[in-house]
Amino acid sequence: MIKKHLIIFDWDGTIENSISLIVASMKKAARAMGLHEPRDNDIRDVIGLDLRNAIQILFPNLELIERDSLISRYRSYYKTAQHGEWRLFKNVEVILRMMKKKKYLLAIATGKSRLGLDRSLQLTGLSGLVDASRTADETVSKPDPQMILELIKELNIAPTNALMVGDSTYDLEMANNASIACIGVTYGVHDKSILTKQSPIGCADDFQEILPLVDRHFADKTKHSLS
Questions:
Q1: Beta bridge partner(s), residue 158
Q2: How many CB atoms lie within 10 A of CB 93?
Q3: What is this structure's pTM?
Q4: Closest Cα to residue 183, out of 224, 211, 223, 142?
Q5: Residue 40, CB-side half-sphere exposure with 13 Å CA sphere
Q6: Tens digits of per-residue pLDDT, 143-181?
Q7: Strands 6-9 and 202-204
Q8: Rounded CA gap, 201 and 216, in Å?
Q9: Does domain 20-85 have CATH number 1.10.150?
Q10: Are 166 and 172 spatial neighbours (Cβ–Cβ below 8 Å)?
Q11: 132-135 and 181-185: which strand pairing?
């Protein structure tokens, strides 16, 4: 029986080039409420967390009603900006289609909401390539392993046959917490010097570099299981 292999991707900063939109939308929402504007790097550092946790870190003194208002404004600004400016990173669609031809299962684990991810999948035309997904409003936020554990259970995949790909330490730490392998991408939120602290099997500077790393990893796993 042929073993199934699963590749789990983060979304923002890994598949969709949305970091600048997130930063601009958060700063615009803060200005609209008369709050201090967080620094760009501070906003980048919380990308990957669920939105409530991210805002709690950026604006720790907000009352609950203010936090809810900020979340609502941010989502509105982001949705408007995304419709006019969404874009995938270079080589994403072609490589995902190559992965599907190789019979890999593909999943998404993201800090986005379900509505946000579904909108992004529709805008980018990638929904037909994704076998399963988890969002931060459906389960526990990264770096808790729950997203991954739910995905491998849903798709009936052993942890040794799953792999996480992401651009932040939250992604790779989540993979480590779930006891699966991981790959860091260096074109997103965190650079290679930070990502390597989470012991990925490799780092990719471009999306097309991910597939050879994945192929090699699972080939080595198969070879060792037969020896």
A1: none
A2: 16
A3: 0.93
A4: 211
A5: 6
A6: 999 999 999 999 999 999 999 999 999 999 999 999 999
A7: unpaired
A8: 10
A9: yes
A10: yes
A11: unpaired
- Count of C-beta atoms within a 10 Å radius of residue 1: 3
When the pLDDT of each residue in the chain is averaged and rounded to a whole number, the result is 93
**What topology is assigned to 6-17+89-226 in CATH?**
Rossmann fold (3.40.50)
Q: For the beta carbon of residue 94, count every other beta carbon within 10 angstroms.
A: 11
Ranges for all domains in the chain classified under CATH 3.40.50.1000: 6-17+89-226
Q: Say yes or no to pLDDT of 85 above 70.
A: no
Secondary structure (3-state) at 184:
strand
Instruction: Return left, alpha or beta for 179; rule: phi > 0 is left, psi -120 to 50 is alpha, else beta.
Output: left
CA distance 184 to 14: 9
User: Helix-strand-coil percent breakdown of the chain, rounded to 5?
Assistant: 55, 15, 30
